[in-house]
Amino acid sequence: MQGRKNRDGSAAAEPEPRGGTGPMTGSSSPQHAQNPGRTASVEGSTASSAAPKAAAKPKSPSGPGSRIALRNWRISTRLVSLLALPVVAATSLGALRIGESMSDIQQLDNMKLLTDMTKQATELASALQEERDQSAGPLANGGKATEDYTVKGARQKTDRARKAFMEGTYEITDGTSNSGLDGVQDHVTQIAGQLNNLKGIRQDAFKDRSTSSQTIDAYSRLVEQLLSLSTDMAQATSNPEMIKRTRALASFSSAKEYASVQRAVIAAALPPNDRDFGKLSETDRRYGESALENQESDLKGFSSVYGNVAATELMKPIDSGNATIKAADQYARRALSQEGGIRIQDKRSYKDWVDADSQRLQEMSKIELTLLNQMEQQARELRNESERTAIINGALILLVLGVSLVGAFVVARSMIRSLRRLQDTATKVAQDRLPELVKQLSESDPQDVDTSVESVGVHSRDEIGQVASAFDDVHREAVRLAAEQALLRGNVNAMFTNLSRRSQGLIQRQLSLISELESREADPDQLSSLFKLDHLATRMRRNGENLLVLAGEEPGRRWTRPVPLVDVLRAAASEVEQYERIELASVPTTEVAGRVVNDLVHLLAELLENATSFSSPQTKVKVTGHALPDGRVLIEIHDTGIGLSPEDLAAINERLASPPTVDVSVSRRMGLFVVGRLSQRHGIRIQLRPSDSGGTTALVMLPVDVAQGGKKAPGKPGPGAASGGPAAAQ
Question: Using 50, 70 and 90 to split pLDDT, how confident is the model at 431?
């Protein structure tokens, strides 16, 4: 190690005089005589950090918004929502169809119930007609109902039919029947009340032979009420076919009732034997004639509703196919068309007339029963059809729902798989691949780095595939730009290195010439000027060597042997302009590894330069060293400036721990960048903190392999290793 004199004439130690490769370019700042104390971070960081604060703050973009906003919904949620609308609509329509089918089934169930009740009502009506017609002759001729077996048997048959009808109506009148039969319940209740008047009708039956139509009309009112239940059947259904059949039944039953009325009117006018003439009053004749006309009208209405062809086929037994029926019909027409009574040639007993005309009513009863059976069969078929329709609609709804869910799952799964793959690949590229590739390009030769881009793997022709293809293009372009940037940075580093090597060669020659002049000069004033020139050239050498640090180059020459720490500190102090203000105290007797000497001198010189530049010229900068039990060495550099704010300290320490990438801002903070790079190169920890006596303290922690001359400390670290002393704890 070659020594040389400082400006005060004292000796200063420097590793390899005028050598080394680690000083920092542009690190020295103008000395602030009017504003003593450290006012900025390393190398003017306060001024540079104030610039961003003065700049206008850009308006931040709007955020993603609320989580419930439509644009923030997941793709699967959007697909489900999109599919839910038609599915809900289809399900609603299907549910309406099923509801209609269930309503039809309910109506048809009511129709079956009404059909059964109508059958019983028809049987009761037939029994009342039979009772009326059979008792008309005997009672009109002064007979007694209790003595005549015909009247007695007819009434017993009516009582049995009445009992069966009343029992059959319990299901409707007790309130447990199906809905939609409220009007029928009232009607059935009304009929049941009128049937209670049957006893009074029987007591007054045919007491006055001249007004037999009154008794017939009383029976007819009961019969009409019973037959009107078929009209209730038409009101309880909305099926056109069932309405048609109920109207046809009502018309035919009414015609049958008028035919029975004719039989009763004529039977009440005939004598008990065929030797006497019967007597038909004008009132009864007109009543019977009206019944005949109504019968013909109702039969025509029946044919019109039921269908002429079908009605003709159904009524063949009562039209012209039976001579007895034809003869009875002719007899009735003659009897009802003559005024003043029945002609002499029409002598006939009421028994003969009833027997002759009963065949017609029996055939009509069969036709009536056929119509009821057809209605029942039609209601059963319609109910089965409604059940099938409801089942088919339900199955279709389930099928639509199943197909919709499966289709939605398949489509959503296809889209989501592609989107997730695109998302995962994009995240991996943004967080791992691209940063790692940029790091490799910045740390090695771009030609040695694989810059091929792995595709996302989504090759569909939809929008997702197009986005994936666009992302691949963006990825390739980003890699290309990173490679070009790394190549450009390499070229810049090469220029820095070339310029630094050339300038260092010239400065080295300049220092050699100055040293030669110093050795031959005896005049103290001239020697002092040469010392100043020598010191200025040394600073120029350190500033020029900063280019090597920017370029990431290692120093050109290294020490092969360890150097005492005190010599390293003196060499660093000798490169500072105000070296006379630096005071060394309690430096431990340890040696620095030769490979680190030049860089450590450069690093400490930058810190000392910063401490002297930003503190009062009348103060001292104290440098102390502490040997820690674990083998490390802590160097403290204290100044008495005004210090830094906590925010500035935090920012400086962050930059020292993680030096930024070389850019334009680095040129304004050269010292900060160089110190961080050199400390990171050798594992040296540096931290700034407020000093207890005011100002700022720079802590430099030398690791064991640096502080012990390149050797590891023997044994385990002592108790103080955990804390590293009072200063190391920071």
Answer: confident
Angle formed by the axes of helices 75-140 and 182-195, nearest 10°: 20
The CB density around residue 717, as the number of other CB atoms within 10 Å, is 15
Tokens representing 705 are: 């392999």
Q: What is the DSSP string of 203-247?
A: HTTTSSGGGHHHHHHHHHHHHHHHHTHHHHHHHT---HHHHHHHH
What would the two tokens of residue 28 be? Answer: 């020295």
Per-residue pLDDT at 693 exceeds 80: no
Judging by beta carbons within 10 Å of its beta carbon (0-12, 13-18, 19+), is residue 570 exposed, middle or buried?
A: buried
Q: Which residues pair with 624 in a beta bridge?
A: 585, 636
How many other CB atoms sit within 10 Å of the CB of residue 431? 10
| Residues 6+ away with beta carbon under 8 Å from 186 | none
Distance between CA 575 and CA 600 in Å, rounded?
A: 12
Q: Where are the alpha helices (DSSP H) in 307-349?
A: 308-314, 316-319, 323-337
Q: Which residues of 484-500 are buried (b: 16+ CB within 10 A; e: fewer)?
A: eebeebbeebeebbeeb
- Report the alpha-carbon distance of residue 397 to residue 382 in Å, rounded: 22
> Domain coordinates of the chain in residue numbers?
4-22+480-728, 90-399
Contacts of 689 (CB under 8 A, 6+ apart): 649, 696, 697, 699, 730
Type of residue at 10: S
Helix (H) or strand (E) holding 658: none
What is the gyration radius of the CA atoms in the chain, in angstroms?
A: 62
pLDDT at 664: 58
High-pLDDT (> 90) share of the chain, %:
7
Between CA 572 and CA 678 the distance in angstroms is 14
Closest CA to 332 of 280, 262, 261: 262
CA-to-CA dists, residue 239 to 17, 235, 343, 386, angstroms: 119, 10, 51, 11
- pTM of the predicted protein model: 0.51
Domain 4-22+480-728 is of which CATH architecture? Answer: 2-Layer Sandwich (3.30)
Q: Which residues does 53 contact at the CB level (< 8 Å), separation at least 6?
A: none
For residue 657, what are the CA distances in angstroms to 263, 626, 689?
126, 22, 14
pLDDT in the model for residue 194: 85
- Quick check: 345 pLDDT over 60? no
Q: Are strands 582-585 and 621-627 parallel, antiparallel or unpaired?
A: parallel
Q: Which residues pair with 626 in a beta bridge?
A: 634
Q: How far is CA 486 from CA 1, 322, 432, 449, 492, in A?
A: 39, 121, 18, 11, 10
* Greater model confidence, 585 or 411: 585
pLDDT at residue 39 tops 50: no
Q: State how far the alpha carbon of 447 is from the alpha carbons of 441, 454, 487, in Å.
A: 9, 18, 9
Average pLDDT, stretch 367-389? 84
